[in-house]
């Protein structure tokens, strides 16, 4: 089965990270980056911008691709639910983030991100996004998504 392709795009503006409190779908209740599935006929960059627009009603500016991750959910017995995620950072936004059906905006200082309210893998890779680095990696989460079974990550990779 081909992995689902999805995006994440975190604006980092004046030392603050823009996140969303996800209202529905995968990871509902968690603090995440704006993002979602790539649709047919759009590039991943277009998908990243569209999701920020749809979820927060702002236009991201200075959007930079930082890397790619494979996320797998499994407990070692089943092999399903793989997601290939293209990760972007944005150096600004145009407009004021709004609450939508999908998302409630939250700004957090980059030095005090509440990682315990995020996906378990975010504490591993998000500090590198905040530091301006590029990356590529693979994360295996338990089926309930609550623990990290294993991961591999390379920092400072070439990103097209
Ligand atoms: N382990 C993980 N860590 C993380 O930080 N983000 C993850 C993640 N696993 C999935 N995601 C993100 C990537 C992507 O933005 C989103 C995909 O979840 P969904 O399919 O529920 O998306 P949405 O419901 O927002 O998609 P659309 O229906 O396309 O809007 O979840």
TrEMBL record:
Top-rank taxon, per record: Archaea
Domain Nudix hydrolase: residue ranges: 2-128
Enzyme's top EC category: hydrolase
Its EC number(s): 3.6.1.56
Catalytic activity: 8-oxo-dATP + H2O = 8-oxo-dAMP + diphosphate + H(+); N(6)-methyl-dATP + H2O = N(6)-methyl-dAMP + diphosphate + H(+); 2-oxo-dATP + H2O = 2-oxo-dAMP + diphosphate + H(+); O(6)-methyl-dGTP + H2O = O(6)-methyl-dGMP + diphosphate + H(+)
Cofactor(s) demanded: Mg(2+)
Gene Ontology cellular component list: cytoplasm
Keyword Ribonucleoprotein recorded: no
PROSITE patterns named among the record's database cross-references: NUDIX (PS51462), NUDIX_BOX (PS00893)
CDD domains cross-referenced by the UniProt entry: NUDIX_MTH1_Nudt1
Gene3D superfamilies (UniProt xref): Nucleoside Triphosphate Pyrophosphohydrolase (3.90.79.10)
UniProt entry keywords in alphabetical sequence: Hydrolase, Magnesium, Metal-binding
Gene Ontology biological-process annotations: DNA protection
GO molecular function: 8-oxo-7,8-dihydroguanosine triphosphate pyrophosphatase activity; dATP diphosphatase activity; metal ion binding
PANTHER family, A to Z: 7,8-DIHYDRO-8-OXOGUANINE TRIPHOSPHATASE, OXIDIZED PURINE NUCLEOSIDE TRIPHOSPHATE HYDROLASE
Quaternary organization: Monomer.
Family: Belongs to the Nudix hydrolase family.
Record's function text: Oxidized purine nucleoside triphosphate hydrolase which is a prominent sanitizer of the oxidized nucleotide pool. Catalyzes the hydrolysis of 2-oxo-dATP (2-hydroxy-dATP) into 2-oxo-dAMP. Also has a significant hydrolase activity toward 2-oxo-ATP, 8-oxo-dGTP and 8-oxo-dATP. Through the hydrolysis of oxidized purine nucleoside triphosphates, prevents their incorporation into DNA and the subsequent transversions A:T to C:G and G:C to T:A. Also catalyzes the hydrolysis of methylated purine nucleoside triphosphate preventing their integration into DNA.
Name of the protein this chain belongs to: Oxidized purine nucleoside triphosphate hydrolase
Origin species: Halosimplex litoreum
Top-level taxonomy: Archaea, Methanobacteriati, Methanobacteriota, Stenosarchaea group, Halobacteria
